[in-house]
Amino acid sequence: MAIKFRPEIKDLVPYKPGKPIADVKREYGLDEVTKLASNENPLGYSPKVKEAILSVVDELHLYPDGNITLLREAIAKKFNAKASQVLPSSGSDEMVDITSKTFLNPGDEVILADVTFPRYLSTAIMMGATPVVVPLKNFFYDLETMKSKITDKTKLIWLCNPNNPTGTMHTEEAIYDFLDSVPKDVVVVYDEAYREFVTREDYLQDSTVLLDKYPNVIIMRTFSKAYGLAALRVGYTMASEEIINNLNKVRGPFNVNTIAQVAAIAALEDQDFIKKSYEVNLEGKEYLYKQFEEMGIEYAPSETNHIFFNGKIECQELFTELQKRGMIIRPMYGTYSRVSIGTMPQNELFIKLYKELLNK
Ligand SMILES: Cc1ncc(COP(=O)(O)O)c(C=O)c1O
């Protein structure tokens, strides 16, 4: 008798993360490997975080605060929301999962883009919902077509702004225009994982204003990118109390560990570190743009800490050849790849190795 798995997961493939440095060192016998594959913060994280972590190392035998009270309050205070409108999670990854579990039934339609963050699609499939996938238009979300796909079966819409992996952004005006056309019983998740890197002034700077105007909007953010806490797995969501209360029913108990809770509070307090991260990212982005232009490499305009580019070489080949030389980037599809913006020495090394390859 065969074990019966849920049919919904039959064709799913596990999430493929950026390749770890240790794996590449081992595989190619290298001492030095640089990873520009997972949009991590090349500056690390705020020194205040280390102090906060040390303050709880003697408490590891105790369960974390299951209500995540202090972190909720710190986030609410910083972003002018109520603590009851905030829900931290184990990375925003977990909240993508919780959201799909909270809202989706078989037969429900979920509108999302292609290409965008892959867990929107896999969690919809897992719940037996029907994904309605709208291709990007010139590397940007095609908001007009997404609007036109709304039916009375639509339950959830995923909006990643700026988008991963293309880095492209929609303006405040475009976001309002889109939200105005969505029926109020359709939930829109506004994923702002990269908000701290946005340079354009026409970006929706303070998305918490959406909470009053659109009770169907869920804002998702993370401490993994600009705040540099990817290893600790902590993100947060803001939405109406009604939505938060329902997401809260679905999340697991103690989903944000004690170290992550104190680290995130300390990280939030150090906005100088965020400013520095923004500046280093901007300098790196301008350098990479210039180099790409000189090399004749086509790229999408990025408002994030990564650049999506047409590498001229098939992406798996570019990935493998760079790896052999100690550089990990992220292959996407065809000749498209994504590189995370690093420190200037890392960016320069990437360009040097890439040029060597192109000239080979
Ligand atoms: C758009 C987007 N959303 C969510 C996530 C998940 O981030 P985390 O689970 O580390 O908070 C990522 C990570 O790459 C992302 O790019």
Can you walk through the features of this model?
The chain has 360 residues and is of the alpha/beta class. The chain has 2 domains: 7-45 and 272-358, Alpha-Beta Complex (Aspartate Aminotransferase, domain 1), CATH 3.90.1150.10; 48-270, Type I PLP-dependent aspartate aminotransferase-like (Major domain) (Aspartate Aminotransferase, domain 2, 3-Layer(aba) Sandwich). Helices cover 39% and strands 16% of the residues. The protein is built from 13 helices and 13 strands. It has helices at residues 21-28, 47-54, 69-78, 91-103, 119-126, 143-148, 172-180, 209-213, 241-250, 258-269, 271-295, 315-324, 344-358; strands spanning 34-35, 86-89, 109-114, 130-135, 154-160, 187-191, 217-222, 235-238, 298-299, 306-310, 327-328, 330-333, 336-340. A 7-stranded mixed beta sheet has the order 2-8-7-6-5-3-4, with helices on both faces. Strands 9-10-13-12 form a 4-stranded antiparallel beta sheet, with helices on one face. A hairpin with a 6-residue loop joins β9 and β10. α3 runs parallel beside α10 and α11 (271-295) packs parallel to α13 (344-358). The longest helix has 25 residues, at 271-295. It is globular. The mean pLDDT is 97. Bound molecules: pyridoxal-5'-phosphate. Its EC number is 2.6.1.9. The modification N6-(pyridoxal phosphate)lysine is found at residue 225. InterPro entries: Aminotrans_II_pyridoxalP_BS, Aminotransferase_I/II_large, HisP_aminotrans, HistidinolP_aminotransfase, PyrdxlP-dep_Trfase, PyrdxlP-dep_Trfase_major, PyrdxlP-dep_Trfase_small. This is Histidinol-phosphate aminotransferase. Belongs to the class-II pyridoxal-phosphate-dependent aminotransferase family. Histidinol-phosphate aminotransferase subfamily.
